[in-house]
Amino acid sequence: MRAVVYRETGPSSVLQLVERDRPEPGAGEVRVRVVRAGVNPTDWKFRAGMMSGYDEVTPGQDGAGVVDAVGAGVTGLAVGDRVWLVLAQHGRAHGTAAEYTVQPAEHVVPLPDGADFDLGASIGVPAVTAHRALTGSEFGPARLGPGALEGRVVLVAGGAGAVGNAAIQLARWSGATVISTVSSDEKGALAVAAGAHHTVNYTVGDPAAAISAVAPDGVDIAVEVAPAQNITLDLDVVKVHGLVSIYANNGGDEMTMPLRAAFGKNLRLQFLILYTLDAGLLRAAVDDVRAAVAAGALRVGADAGLPLHHYPLAETAAAHDAVEGGVVGKVLIDVSD
């Protein structure tokens, strides 16, 4: 089979397209013929030096394809099933940038009817991250779905990104009023296409005033991608007992915040990453994301606010470079037909 690998960390030039034996599933494992692989920022960050410990790595946490073989003891999955993958390269050397991948059965999720492989390869890391960001408060829901966020106001920073897009769609599906901050009219149009009720261009005027004009009683949940830059804004607009969910460090690795303002609002800060997420919380997120896909509430493409950028497997390095360079939309690798 064809696979993309790297044997040392570094720039995208360390990625190589090679031929490897097709892996065999063991007990509790499933082999998937990968049709699409998704590229996330963690993929290039791991490749650039954040991850080591393997002689050879095939990148890719997300993907979609068809079950090709099932190991002993696996139930609920059968050869021929259309599936999507979650955390495919977590704790193992080989992810989705290959024609076949062997995964623990719990990382292989049936793809609902009507959902194509582009969508399946786009929802793993972004949608599960967005789910956790929206469900971490003791005053909020443990699960998402119609009515779960009814009457709540959700602020999504960077609504034109993949996680922001998923957060908008999941919050809207769950009944929230959604505000998204953006840096341009073009990105504002993408956030609206995703389902945002209101957008605020944070590069113009006073964004706190603009958000407060829409949500005078404050925001219940802020989904934050750039805390080093935005924490003061979050403190200004989040209501008492509100939640700020921080999932990335865009714009800086250190955050300084006024503590008294946070004390005064009984504010909850949630820092999140999927790789150490409790297995029960991960399963709940996967179940809710699957339900949202089945309901047509999670979509991809320009009309859903997330333009798609396709690369062949042989150009995985260019796909990594596009994500590292901040391309707007979702980068996918076309692995097979």
TrEMBL record:
Keyword Oxidoreductase (UniProt): yes
UniProt name for this protein: NADPH2:quinone reductase
The EC class name is oxidoreductase
EC number assigned by the record: 1.6.5.5
**What domain of life does the UniProt record list for this protein's source?**
Bacteria
Q: Which Gene3D superfamilies match?
A: Medium-chain alcohol dehydrogenases, catalytic domain (3.90.180.10), NAD(P)-binding Rossmann-like Domain (3.40.50.720)
Q: Where is the Enoyl reductase (ER) domain?
A: 10-333
Q: Name one Pfam family in it.
A: ADH_zinc_N
UniProt keyword annotations, A-Z: NADP, Oxidoreductase
Which InterPro entries does this entry report, sorted A to Z? ADH-like_C (IPR013149), ADH-like_N (IPR013154), ER (IPR020843), GroES-like_sf (IPR011032), NAD(P)-bd_dom_sf (IPR036291), Zinc-ADH_QOR/CCCR (IPR051603)
* A GO molecular function held by the record: quinone reductase (NADPH) activity
Q: Name its species.
A: Nocardioides soli
Q: Which SUPFAM superfamilies match?
A: GroES-like, NAD(P)-binding Rossmann-fold domains
